[in-house]
Amino acid sequence: MREKPRRVRLGQAAVLLGLLAAWEGLSRKAGGLFLPGPGAAVSTVADGVQGGWLLPHLATTVVELGWAYVWAVAIGLSLGFGLGTRPVLREAYEDLLLNLYAVPKVTLFPLFLASFKLGMASKVAFGAFHGLFPVAIYTWTAIRTMNPVHLKVARSLKLSSWETFWRVLFPAVLPGIVTGLRLGFNLTLLGVVLGEMFASRGGLGFLLMSFAGAFDATRIVAVIVVLVVMALGANGMLLALERRIRRGPEGYLQVS
Amino acid sequence: MTLRRKALTLRWLTLLVLFGLVEALPRAGLVRPATLEPASVILGRLMEIIVTGSIPSPYFARTGSPTLASHVSATLGSILLSYAGAVVVGTAGGVLLWRVPLLARILQPYLVVYYALPLFALYPLFILLFGVGFLPIVLLGFCFAIVVVMVNTALGLRRVDEEVYPKVGRSLGLGPAQMYLSIYLPAAAPYVFSGWKLGFVYSTISVVASEFLISVRGLGHVIDRSYRNFETANMYAAILLVIAGVLVANAMLTRLERRLYRRRG
Amino acid sequence: MAIIEIRGLRKVYRPDTGAPPVEALRDVSLSVEAGEFLAIVGPSGCGKSTLLEIVGGLQAPTSGDVVVAGEPVRGPRADVGIVFQEDSTFPWLTTLDNVKFGLRARGVPAAEQEERARQVIQLVGLRGFERHYPRELSGGMRQRVAIARTLVLRPKILLMDEPFGALDAQTRLLLGNELLRIWQEIGATILFVTHDLIEALRLADRVVLMTRRPGRIKRTVETAAPRPRDERLMASTEMARLANLLWEELREEVGEEGQG
Predict the structure, then answer these.
(1) What is residue A256's predicted lDDT score, i.e. its pLDDT?
(2) What burial letters (b/e) apply to B74-89, b meaning 16+ CB within 10 Å?
(3) What is the distance between the alpha carbons of residues C209 and C219, in angstroms, rounded to a whole number?
(4) Does some domain include residue B118?
(5) Which positions in chain B have a beta carbon within 8 angstroms of at least one beta carbon in chain C?
(6) B174–C91 C-beta distance less than 8 A
(7) pLDDT digit string (tens) for C82-124?
(8) In terms of C-beta distances under 8 Å and separation of at least 24 residues, what long-range contacts does C70-77 make, across chains too?
(9) Are residues C73 and C54 in contact, defined by beta-carbon separation less than 8 angstroms?
(10) For the structural domain made of A46-246, what CATH number should be given?
(11) Taking the CB of the first residue and of the last residue of chain A, which one, N or C, has fewer CB atoms within 10 A?
């Protein structure tokens, strides 16, 4: 693992500080009311926790996110393994799914609303619908690009099906799957928040929209900060997991 | 039956079954018309909208934008504007990242994390800052697309560096401009174009979603309004139109992309 | 006067990741006569490619002199051509355009480009394939394109870095003979890096053996045998003696490391 030279670390810190400073600078120019600076945002978050308007909605979002992700992973892995191990399925459905991935899935939200009605279920389903794609795609790609020679080696060593799966297949495809899990999480979060923004009575997305309606930029920014922290926290953990599993040099991690 | 034939049969069968369900369930009364209209009705409405060029809806007539063209042009305009910006700035940024490896290393964690952030949460903020209209939509689309363009450009150029072509160019005594034009450009073109294709997809997704949430015009807006006004047939027709448009654009871009990769051998 | 003079060449790599420096070449001195076919052999990692790239002006030495045709080497030169081991044909250009590439970059008029390119394509035995793309050609043919692209510029010196390394044994033999034929026609000086001792003995006037890293010249042998060198000649006592000599010396280099 390469040691990050000091220059790079300094540069990264500088970028972070620079962004915060720019934010602060912009907020002063636009007038504190229009665009709150970092300080105001953080204090509003604290207010929100104390004032009680933040935590219930945060809880809603987290619950929806949790369920949506569970479904996304379950469906995504099933699809991924199905299409990865059965060429017939892959030939039949890969193109369809890849195309569906590129389509603005938000246009299908009315379908979810109509099927699941208002309430958590539609957001959970919508979020899962977003997140399952990277999970599935990365899974079947990992299976497909696995070096077939490994399987031949397993056969020549007369490994049982279970051993073949656990000691050859699984470790070979795990890195790809873990990346898919990370990107799937990000998309699930996006789907859940979008769903809340569009039609919901609760959740952080709902807060964003209602504060927009109330012209309350300060609270909007506070909610954004909470979302960013959530996203960074989860990604930090998933990235650490991904690095541990890939255990390679700090190569180029997938962005999207 | 060959694998290919089996797969195609499976695919068409699935699509047929789905179509059949969409047709039968509403007709059988198992699904309310507010939820889903029969497929034939939807397709009919879509045809009607395309042929007459206007959306049959009292709401849209009232708000003075009943024509299909006004919405399509709004959506397309937003997409193209945000995409053009992302391509120009993103490609230039990618070249910069490639030329200055230190910068790339510094920015790497930020770029990796960029798409984890709920960029969409910025939309309500943009609306407060700039008002409802094109600017927040285009701005958000730009933000969505730019990083994927930048990263793919930088990666593509880096990949060329790892190959033998720049060495050949240098051994032939090529000047810097010649190196860029006759070696890096053709060699990196497929990778850079992949980034452009992805950027287009991201722009589109962002623009349509923004229109869906808050806007006064555009196809996303049409879907949203039709939903709220219970004009289900219009809604699904518009959804189909958007999906079809995106699929066609995507297919064309993919064909171009494949041609570029084929030239690379 | 030797056309290539290398004196006390030293090359040290200092990676910017903070890893320890690598001494690729240490005190290499070599003279190459004009028109000579010189082969350079040695264990993996001994720096033969580095040596070639320094002579070709693609890398700068840490210390030492390299003088080509009376001029110290400061960068790539028009009178020095390089052929690389990997397939270096541009996949987005046809054979003809590939060969014309260097001419075009130098501003040679179009008509002359066409004429010279076609001539050289004929020389390397690829007539009829002008409009083909590299993906439609075999590995051996692609290397011919790469060679043609270099030859069309009429270099006085041809540097070849394991040009047949990525090809199968039969193609290697064939192309080796083709190379000799071309060499005899154009009379250039050739520096030919290879890991294949027998190939070196079969093609070259002189064979230089390098030590393992940090590379120095260990041994030089003169083949002094007429060409073409068919199987019978290669099996002659003199050749066998040279081959054995080189093998022994090479084995010393490789054996000490314990790896190939």
Answers:
(1) 56
(2) bbbbbbebbbebbbee
(3) 5
(4) yes
(5) 163-165, 167-168, 170-174, 178, 182-183, 186-187, 263-265
(6) no
(7) 999 888 899 999 999 999 998 988 889 999 999 999 999 999 9
(8) C70/C1, C75/B173, C76/B170, C76/B171, C76/B172, C76/B173, C77/B173
(9) yes
(10) 1.10.3720.10
(11) N
